Amino acid sequence: MRVLIAGGGIGGLTAALSLHAAGIEAEVFESAQELRPLGVGINLLPHAVRELTELGLAERLAATGIATRELRYINVHGQLIWAEPRGLAAGYRWPQYSIHRGRLQMLLWEAARERLGPARLHTGRRVVATSQDRHSATLHFADGSRVSGDAIVAADGIHSAVRAERHPDEGPPRWKGAVLWRATSIAPPFLDGATMIQCGHHRLKFVCYPIANHPDGTQLINWIAERVLPADTPWNREDWNRRGSLDDVIPHYADWVWPWLDVPALMRRAEAVYEFPMVDRDPLPRWSVGRITLLGDAAHPMYPIGSNGASQAILDARVLAMHLKRARSVEEGLAAYEAARLPPTAALTEANRGLGPDVVLEIAHQRAPQGFRHIHDVIPEAELAAIAARYKQLAGFDPASLNARESYSA
Ligand SMILES: Cc1cc2nc3c(=O)[nH]c(=O)nc-3n(C[C@H](O)[C@H](O)[C@H](O)COP(=O)(O)OP(=O)(O)OC[C@H]3O[C@@H](n4cnc5c(N)ncnc54)[C@H](O)[C@@H]3O)c2cc1C
Fold this sequence. Notes:
Layout: E1 2-6, H1 10-21, E2 25-29, E3 41-44, H2 46-54, H3 58-64, E4 66-67, E5 70-74, E6 80-85, E7 97-100, H4 101-116, E8 121-122, E9 127-132, E10 137-141, E11 146-149, E12 151-154, H5 161-166, E13 174-187, E14 195-201, E15 204-213, E16 219-228, E17 257-258, E18 261-262, H6 263-268, E19 270-280, E20 292-294, H7 309-326, H8 330-353, H9 359-367, H10 375-378, H11 381-395, H12 399-404
The chain binds flavin-adenine dinucleotide.
């Protein structure tokens, strides 16, 4: 079986590695002329780290990212609402990594080059259409060329050409008014140097975590400032590489200066700032049609809440390879993959619209806008714990079930 993958991002490359590990031939067609380490920080949750570990990438991940030990929710006054251990500290058998998205992509690309061979990875190949018959599926490229194989996996991201071909009336992704300014700053560590923080409330948020250690004791610190604008504000089309301005954010965070972190000072150290509207799409009724399917953001673009975008693409890739290996036909394998992955990712897309686990920020802000003496006067501990546990269950990473679940290795 030969599987053609459109898109060499996180999902496409993990699919190539997973198919190869399952003994299935895979070939990647990426539109960028050259692969560069683009993007800022992302989080790989233990369920995704498990999959990359089973692909033999544990050491490379450990050398590239920072194993996150704790997640803290903080109000606008710098007070702690909720803290929970993460990764190994939370009892998972696998760590959680905060990592530079571009470096992760390069790591996957290198591994795919070594294992599949350079001839199986193509750059400068923009997919514009697909076709299929009873025996094969074909990718059509912008330069007029075409390539045929047994199956097509469209992992071509949020502006997926394959999804648009199938759903021409879907229109642009849904934007409800939140804009993210994303950046990295080089700065001394805050807290223990391995903690992720989520601060503020629904209309003004700040997320921050280190993604690399430097020999001089500083860290590369990823931060995201999120503001909700009136929904009728004209805004730019989503583009991961669009530059933004610090002037649009710093004034809103001017008094977020706490004994353990000076937010505006960290922002001023930014190397470059990118702006991105927070968008998603309604879940599709199906991903697989015959020999062609969707994966990752092409299948289920979701709000980047709960650190799940890249992690869910990685899960898709592994489950896809497992079902293609087990099935009696390509069509049966792609249908089984869809049946396993569409319902949970649709539920997660919905949950993220409802603020996901970040809802604790909103509850604390509503009940105590001026701050609190003790958080449990405002939100009982049981309520906080229930919110955190519910999301983990939904996203497939509560420690007990993840640790006990059978491997997806085919
Ligand atoms: C340049 C870039 C920077 C990003 N930065 C961040 C970030 O800082 N933070 C964050 O949370 N998420 C970021 N993302 C998104 C994040 O990687 C995804 O949400 C997540 O990893 C799911 O992965 P994916 O493989 O589905 O999509 P992506 O990782 O977006 O990969 C899609 C790939 O398909 C390629 N492609 C697109 N159209 C075509 C086509 N027609 N033919 C062939 N190839 C095509 C793209 O160039 C890309 O390499 C970024 C994505 C990109 C492309």
